Amino acid sequence: MLNACQNQDGTIELVWNNQRATGIQIPKHLLHNFSQAAADPTLKIVLENGHNQSILGNFVSDNSSLRFEPLIPLTPGLTYQIVQNNKHIGKLFVPFDKDEKAPELLAIYPKLDTLPENLLKFYLQFSKPMRSGQALQFIHLLDKNKDTLRDVFLNLQPELWDTSGTVLTLWLDPGRIKRGLHLNQKLGNPLKMNETYQVVVSQAWKDQMGLKLSIKYTKTFVAGKRDEQAPNIQQWQLRLPKVGTVDPLRINIPESLDYYLLSETIGIVDQNDSPVKGEISVEAKAQQVIFLPSKPWKAQPYRMQVDARLEDLAGNNLNRIFDRDMTKEKKREKAYYERGFLPTTP
Questions:
Q1: Which residues contact 82 (CB under 8 A, 6 or more apart)?
Q2: What's the CATH number of domain 2-93, 3.90.550, 2.60.480, 2.60.40, 3.30.10?
Q3: Among residues of the chain, what percentage have pLDDT more than 70?
Q4: Which stretch of 18-22, 119-123, 288-292 has the lowest confidence by average pLDDT?
Q5: How confident is the model at residue 284 (pLDDT cuts 50, 70, 90)?
Q6: In 113-212, which ranges are continuous DSSP H helix?
Q7: At 176, is the secondary structure helix, strand, or coil?
Q8: Which residues does 175 contact at the CB level (< 8 Å), separation at least 6?
Q9: Phi, psi (rounded to 5 degrees) for 312
Q10: Interatomic CA distance for residues 312 and 230, integer angstroms
Q11: Are 284 and 257 in contact (CB under 8 A)?
C-alpha cells in the first residue's frame, strides 16, 4: 500500500510502501524547468553528510510533481537532500517505524570460556541484517587491562556475511597466527596462553534499517594451549538409534569444532550410497551433533560421511593442520571421511 508522509514544511513528501520509504515526492513549483526535470543531470538526491554522493534511482514525472524512486528503500534514521543545479531544494529525514525493534547480538561463537591460543575466527549472529563494511569500527578485542589490542582482526572487504546478512565471520589475522610469517615474527600471536580477553561489540553498530544494537555486548574468555591436532572422526562417540524408530543419531565430539561448518559437512548414507534425509542440529558448544531422520532406521549398515572441510577452532581440518610446515608435511587430499554404524535392534 502506497501513502505519503508530508514533511513539516508541507512541500516535499516521503512515499511509503509496506512501512518502507520507497520514494520522494517533489512538488512542481520547487523545480527549475519542471517539464525537463526528470532528465536533468543536475537534479539528484544525496545523503546528508555523505560527501555529495548521489543515491541511485529514477525520476518519474506527473502533472504536478516529480517522484524519485530509489533502487533500494531509503534508510530510516538518515537525512536525504534534494539538489538541482548545485542549489539546495529541500531535505527529508526518514523516521523509524515506532514498532521496529532494535537488533540484538544473539550469540558469539565459539561459546566456550577457554579458547585455543591459535583461535582462527569468531562468528557473530545477529537478529537482523546489519550494516556491512564497517564491522571493525564496532568490534574490539581487549586484554586483561581493558586495553584495546590493535591489528588483531583481518580487515576483509567485502566482509564475510552469510546470505541473510545476520552472521558475520570474523577472522583473527592468519598472518599473525602462522609461525614463521612476517606478521607473526613482527607482532606475535594475537592471543597469549593463560591471558584473559574480552570481545566487545559496540551498541553504536546499526542494522540495515538504521537502528542501533539494543545494548553493548561483551564475551570474556581465556586463551588456552595451542591446538595442533587435526580432528579425527574415529574418536567421535556415536549413540546409535534403534531399528524401526526415528530416534536421533547422536554424535559426541571430544573437542569443540566450527559451529557453522558442523551443520554443513555431516551427512548419512545407506548401504546403497543413497543420502538419508533428515535434519542436522548442533548444540551451542559445538561438541554434539544430532541427526534426526525423516523415516525410520532400517536393519542395514549406514555410513556417516564428513566433508574434509570441517575445522576445529584453530582452523585445522580433516586433511591438514592450519599452521603446518609445508616443506615437511604432505597435505592429504581426501574429499570426505567415513565411519560406518549399524542401528541397534529393539
A1: 12, 24, 26, 30, 43, 44, 45, 68, 88, 89, 90, 91, 92
A2: 2.60.40
A3: 94
A4: 18-22
A5: confident
A6: 174-177, 182-187
A7: helix
A8: 181, 182, 183, 184
A9: -90, -170
A10: 8
A11: no
User: Nearest 5°: CA angle at 140, between 139 and 143?
Assistant: 155
Q: Where are the domains of the chain?
A: 2-93, 105-224, 233-319+329-341
C-alpha cell at 119: 583461535
Report residue 247 as a C-alpha cell.
Answer: 530416534
E runs forming strands in 172-214: 196-201
Q: Which amino acid is it at 20?
A: R
Element (H, E) at 108: strand 105-109
* One CATH from 3.30.450.20, 2.160.10.10, 2.40.280.10, 2.60.40.1220 for 233-319+329-341: 2.60.40.1220
CA distances 72 to 20, 23, 75, 83, 208, Å, are: 10, 9, 9, 19, 11
Residue 320 pLDDT = 93
The DSSP output letter for 175 is: H
Q: ω before 158 within 30° of 0 (cis)?
A: yes
Residues in the chain: 346
DSSP 252-294: E-SS-B-HHHHHHHEEEE-TTSPBPPEEEEE-TTSSEEEEEES
Distance (Å, whole) CA 135 – CA 138: 6
Query: Is the pLDDT score of 145 beyond 50?
Result: yes
- For residue 233, what is its C-alpha cell? 572422526
> Mean pLDDT, the chain, as a whole number?
90
Multiple choice CATH, 105-224, 2.60.40.10, 2.60.15.10, 2.60.40.1220, 3.10.290.10: 2.60.40.1220
Q: Is the pLDDT of residue 57 over 90?
A: yes
Do 233-319+329-341 and 105-224 have the same topology in CATH? yes
